[in-house]
Specification:
The protein is mainly β and about 260 residues long. It has two helices and 19 strands. Strands 3, 4, 5, 6, 7 and 8 form a six-stranded antiparallel β-sheet that branches.
Protein backbone atom coordinates (compact mmCIF):
# COMPACT_ATOMS: atom_id res chain seq x y z
CA UNK A 1 0.00 0.00 0.00
CA UNK A 2 2.83 2.34 0.83
CA UNK A 3 4.48 1.59 -2.58
CA UNK A 4 1.26 2.45 -4.42
CA UNK A 5 0.91 5.77 -2.60
CA UNK A 6 4.55 6.59 -3.36
CA UNK A 7 3.99 5.96 -7.11
CA UNK A 8 0.90 8.22 -7.10
CA UNK A 9 2.86 11.05 -5.42
CA UNK A 10 5.73 10.72 -7.96
CA UNK A 11 3.31 10.82 -10.92
CA UNK A 12 1.50 13.85 -9.45
CA UNK A 13 4.80 15.73 -9.00
CA UNK A 14 5.88 14.98 -12.59
CA UNK A 15 2.53 16.21 -13.92
CA UNK A 16 2.78 19.50 -11.98
CA UNK A 17 6.36 20.01 -13.17
CA UNK A 18 5.38 19.53 -16.85
CA UNK A 19 2.52 22.00 -16.51
CA UNK A 20 4.92 24.58 -14.99
CA UNK A 21 7.36 24.15 -17.88
CA UNK A 22 4.59 24.60 -20.45
CA UNK A 23 3.41 27.86 -18.88
CA UNK A 24 6.89 29.30 -18.55
CA UNK A 25 7.80 28.47 -22.17
CA UNK A 26 4.78 30.42 -23.60
CA UNK A 27 5.70 34.08 -24.58
CA UNK A 28 4.33 36.67 -22.22
CA UNK A 29 1.40 38.60 -23.62
CA UNK A 30 0.56 35.80 -26.07
CA UNK A 31 -2.35 36.77 -28.28
CA UNK A 32 -1.62 40.54 -27.91
CA UNK A 33 0.32 42.80 -30.27
CA UNK A 34 4.04 43.17 -29.56
CA UNK A 35 4.92 46.12 -27.35
CA UNK A 36 6.86 47.83 -30.15
CA UNK A 37 3.82 47.79 -32.47
CA UNK A 38 1.55 49.21 -29.79
CA UNK A 39 3.98 52.08 -29.13
CA UNK A 40 4.36 52.85 -32.81
CA UNK A 41 0.61 53.23 -33.11
CA UNK A 42 0.22 55.73 -30.27
CA UNK A 43 3.43 57.79 -30.07
CA UNK A 44 3.73 60.83 -32.36
CA UNK A 45 7.21 62.30 -32.92
CA UNK A 46 7.55 65.92 -31.80
CA UNK A 47 9.56 68.47 -33.74
CA UNK A 48 10.04 71.90 -32.13
CA UNK A 49 10.85 73.36 -35.56
CA UNK A 50 7.78 71.98 -37.27
CA UNK A 51 6.29 74.35 -39.85
CA UNK A 52 3.46 72.10 -40.99
CA UNK A 53 0.27 74.05 -41.70
CA UNK A 54 -2.82 73.00 -39.71
CA UNK A 55 -4.56 69.94 -41.10
CA UNK A 56 -7.96 70.23 -42.64
CA UNK A 57 -10.84 68.95 -40.57
CA UNK A 58 -14.49 68.36 -41.37
CA UNK A 59 -15.08 72.00 -40.45
CA UNK A 60 -12.37 73.31 -42.80
CA UNK A 61 -8.91 74.79 -42.27
CA UNK A 62 -8.01 75.51 -38.65
CA UNK A 63 -7.15 79.14 -37.92
CA UNK A 64 -4.10 79.88 -35.81
CA UNK A 65 -5.43 83.28 -34.75
CA UNK A 66 -7.56 83.91 -31.70
CA UNK A 67 -11.28 83.51 -32.22
CA UNK A 68 -13.18 86.73 -32.90
CA UNK A 69 -16.86 87.62 -33.02
CA UNK A 70 -16.67 87.09 -36.78
CA UNK A 71 -14.98 83.66 -36.71
CA UNK A 72 -18.21 81.64 -36.92
CA UNK A 73 -19.22 83.60 -40.03
CA UNK A 74 -15.97 82.89 -41.91
CA UNK A 75 -14.99 79.85 -43.92
CA UNK A 76 -11.23 79.60 -44.48
CA UNK A 77 -10.14 78.69 -48.00
CA UNK A 78 -6.36 78.93 -48.19
CA UNK A 79 -3.24 79.58 -46.13
CA UNK A 80 -0.16 81.27 -47.59
CA UNK A 81 3.34 81.57 -46.13
CA UNK A 82 4.47 83.95 -48.88
CA UNK A 83 4.18 87.68 -48.04
CA UNK A 84 1.67 89.51 -50.24
CA UNK A 85 1.18 93.22 -50.93
CA UNK A 86 -2.35 94.15 -49.87
CA UNK A 87 -2.18 97.95 -50.25
CA UNK A 88 0.15 100.26 -52.16
CA UNK A 89 0.72 103.89 -53.10
CA UNK A 90 3.54 105.51 -55.03
CA UNK A 91 5.57 108.38 -53.62
CA UNK A 92 8.02 110.69 -55.34
CA UNK A 93 10.76 108.54 -53.82
CA UNK A 94 9.58 105.07 -52.90
CA UNK A 95 6.27 103.47 -51.93
CA UNK A 96 4.05 102.88 -48.91
CA UNK A 97 2.94 99.25 -48.73
CA UNK A 98 0.78 97.05 -46.56
CA UNK A 99 2.38 93.57 -46.52
CA UNK A 100 1.16 90.31 -45.00
CA UNK A 101 3.30 88.34 -42.54
CA UNK A 102 4.67 84.79 -42.64
CA UNK A 103 1.13 83.38 -42.53
CA UNK A 104 -1.94 84.81 -44.18
CA UNK A 105 -5.34 83.17 -43.93
CA UNK A 106 -7.77 83.77 -46.78
CA UNK A 107 -11.44 82.95 -46.61
CA UNK A 108 -14.91 84.23 -47.34
CA UNK A 109 -17.96 85.40 -45.41
CA UNK A 110 -20.65 82.72 -45.25
CA UNK A 111 -23.31 84.98 -43.75
CA UNK A 112 -23.96 88.70 -44.27
CA UNK A 113 -23.06 91.16 -41.51
CA UNK A 114 -22.47 94.86 -41.01
CA UNK A 115 -18.88 94.23 -42.10
CA UNK A 116 -19.67 92.78 -45.50
CA UNK A 117 -21.92 90.82 -47.82
CA UNK A 118 -22.07 87.05 -48.08
CA UNK A 119 -19.18 85.87 -50.24
CA UNK A 120 -16.92 88.82 -49.44
CA UNK A 121 -13.27 87.84 -49.12
CA UNK A 122 -11.56 87.82 -45.73
CA UNK A 123 -7.88 88.47 -45.01
CA UNK A 124 -6.04 87.89 -41.74
CA UNK A 125 -2.33 88.11 -40.95
CA UNK A 126 0.29 89.97 -38.93
CA UNK A 127 0.40 92.88 -41.35
CA UNK A 128 3.00 95.62 -41.55
CA UNK A 129 2.76 98.99 -43.23
CA UNK A 130 6.18 99.95 -44.54
CA UNK A 131 7.90 102.70 -46.45
CA UNK A 132 9.94 101.03 -49.18
CA UNK A 133 12.79 102.86 -50.81
CA UNK A 134 14.89 100.72 -53.13
CA UNK A 135 15.56 97.47 -51.30
CA UNK A 136 15.06 98.94 -47.83
CA UNK A 137 11.83 98.76 -45.82
CA UNK A 138 11.08 101.06 -42.91
CA UNK A 139 8.26 99.74 -40.72
CA UNK A 140 5.71 102.49 -40.08
CA UNK A 141 3.04 100.47 -38.31
CA UNK A 142 2.35 96.87 -37.28
CA UNK A 143 -1.13 95.34 -37.30
CA UNK A 144 -0.91 91.96 -35.49
CA UNK A 145 -3.61 89.36 -36.23
CA UNK A 146 -5.44 92.00 -38.28
CA UNK A 147 -8.67 90.85 -39.95
CA UNK A 148 -10.50 92.75 -42.68
CA UNK A 149 -13.01 92.14 -45.48
CA UNK A 150 -13.13 93.30 -49.08
CA UNK A 151 -15.38 92.38 -52.03
CA UNK A 152 -12.28 91.39 -54.09
CA UNK A 153 -8.57 90.72 -53.62
CA UNK A 154 -7.48 93.82 -55.54
CA UNK A 155 -4.56 95.77 -54.06
CA UNK A 156 -6.03 98.54 -51.91
CA UNK A 157 -5.26 102.21 -52.65
CA UNK A 158 -4.31 104.97 -50.23
CA UNK A 159 -6.34 108.19 -50.32
CA UNK A 160 -4.09 111.23 -50.75
CA UNK A 161 -4.74 114.64 -49.23
CA UNK A 162 -2.13 117.32 -49.94
CA UNK A 163 -1.12 120.10 -47.59
CA UNK A 164 1.47 122.84 -47.93
CA UNK A 165 4.04 121.12 -45.74
CA UNK A 166 3.18 117.47 -46.32
CA UNK A 167 1.25 114.92 -48.32
CA UNK A 168 -1.13 112.83 -46.24
CA UNK A 169 -2.04 109.24 -47.13
CA UNK A 170 -5.02 107.42 -45.62
CA UNK A 171 -5.48 103.65 -45.73
CA UNK A 172 -8.90 102.16 -44.91
CA UNK A 173 -8.65 98.34 -45.13
CA UNK A 174 -12.20 97.57 -43.93
CA UNK A 175 -14.63 98.92 -46.52
CA UNK A 176 -17.72 99.05 -44.31
CA UNK A 177 -18.71 98.62 -40.67
CA UNK A 178 -22.11 100.25 -40.19
CA UNK A 179 -20.53 102.49 -37.54
CA UNK A 180 -17.97 104.53 -39.48
CA UNK A 181 -14.68 103.72 -41.18
CA UNK A 182 -11.20 103.74 -39.67
CA UNK A 183 -8.22 105.03 -41.63
CA UNK A 184 -4.53 104.70 -40.82
CA UNK A 185 -2.84 108.01 -41.55
CA UNK A 186 0.70 108.63 -42.82
CA UNK A 187 2.58 111.77 -43.74
CA UNK A 188 5.37 112.52 -46.19
CA UNK A 189 7.26 115.65 -45.18
CA UNK A 190 7.76 117.73 -48.33
CA UNK A 191 10.84 119.42 -46.92
CA UNK A 192 12.99 116.42 -45.97
CA UNK A 193 11.08 113.44 -47.43
CA UNK A 194 10.51 111.75 -44.06
CA UNK A 195 7.63 109.26 -43.96
CA UNK A 196 5.86 108.50 -40.66
CA UNK A 197 2.45 107.66 -39.13
CA UNK A 198 0.17 110.41 -37.85
CA UNK A 199 -1.86 110.22 -34.63
CA UNK A 200 -5.31 111.75 -34.23
CA UNK A 201 -5.86 113.95 -31.20
CA UNK A 202 -9.30 115.09 -30.10
CA UNK A 203 -9.44 116.75 -26.71
CA UNK A 204 -7.57 114.56 -24.24
CA UNK A 205 -7.89 111.44 -26.40
CA UNK A 206 -5.29 110.27 -28.89
CA UNK A 207 -5.90 107.54 -31.46
CA UNK A 208 -3.89 105.75 -34.13
CA UNK A 209 -6.83 105.83 -36.54
CA UNK A 210 -9.05 108.49 -38.05
CA UNK A 211 -12.77 107.74 -37.80
CA UNK A 212 -15.02 109.10 -40.53
CA UNK A 213 -18.53 108.59 -41.91
CA UNK A 214 -19.10 105.52 -44.01
CA UNK A 215 -21.47 107.45 -46.28
CA UNK A 216 -20.61 110.90 -47.57
CA UNK A 217 -17.41 112.71 -48.37
CA UNK A 218 -14.00 111.32 -47.53
CA UNK A 219 -11.65 113.54 -45.47
CA UNK A 220 -10.39 116.51 -47.49
CA UNK A 221 -8.30 119.67 -47.20
CA UNK A 222 -10.14 122.93 -46.70
CA UNK A 223 -8.14 126.07 -46.04
CA UNK A 224 -5.18 124.09 -44.69
CA UNK A 225 -7.24 121.90 -42.37
CA UNK A 226 -8.42 118.31 -42.68
CA UNK A 227 -12.22 118.25 -42.74
CA UNK A 228 -13.85 115.04 -41.52
CA UNK A 229 -17.53 114.07 -41.40
CA UNK A 230 -18.02 111.92 -38.29
CA UNK A 231 -20.13 108.75 -38.29
CA UNK A 232 -23.67 109.34 -37.03
CA UNK A 233 -25.83 106.71 -35.41
CA UNK A 234 -29.01 106.52 -33.40
CA UNK A 235 -28.66 108.59 -30.28
CA UNK A 236 -25.57 110.52 -31.43
CA UNK A 237 -25.54 113.92 -29.64
CA UNK A 238 -26.05 116.85 -32.01
CA UNK A 239 -22.68 118.33 -31.11
CA UNK A 240 -21.00 115.15 -32.40
CA UNK A 241 -22.75 115.25 -35.77
CA UNK A 242 -20.94 118.33 -37.04
CA UNK A 243 -17.92 118.15 -39.27
CA UNK A 244 -14.56 118.16 -37.51
CA UNK A 245 -11.61 120.30 -38.53
CA UNK A 246 -8.13 119.01 -37.80
CA UNK A 247 -4.96 121.07 -37.85
CA UNK A 248 -1.78 119.31 -38.95
CA UNK A 249 1.00 119.45 -36.34
CA UNK A 250 3.87 117.99 -38.32
CA UNK A 251 6.42 118.46 -35.52
CA UNK A 252 4.41 116.31 -33.11
CA UNK A 253 3.15 114.03 -35.89
CA UNK A 254 -0.50 114.65 -35.08
CA UNK A 255 -3.78 115.93 -36.46
CA UNK A 256 -5.35 118.02 -33.71
CA UNK A 257 -9.09 118.75 -33.66
CA UNK A 258 -10.09 122.40 -33.29
Amino acid sequence: MFAINRKIMILSSLLSFNLLLACSSQPSGAGDKPTSESSAATVTPFSPKSTVTPAETEGGIVSQFSKSTLSDSISLDTISDTPSIRAETDLVDGKILMISGDREERGHLIAPSVLGAEGDQTFQSNYKIVYRKGNNDKVLLELPAFLYLQPTDKILPFDKVSFKEADIFLLTPQYRTGHGLEAYVFAVDKQNGDVFPIEIRKGEKTSKTLLYAELGKKPFNQNGQLVVYPPIGAGTPEKDTKEIHYKLDLRNKQFIAD
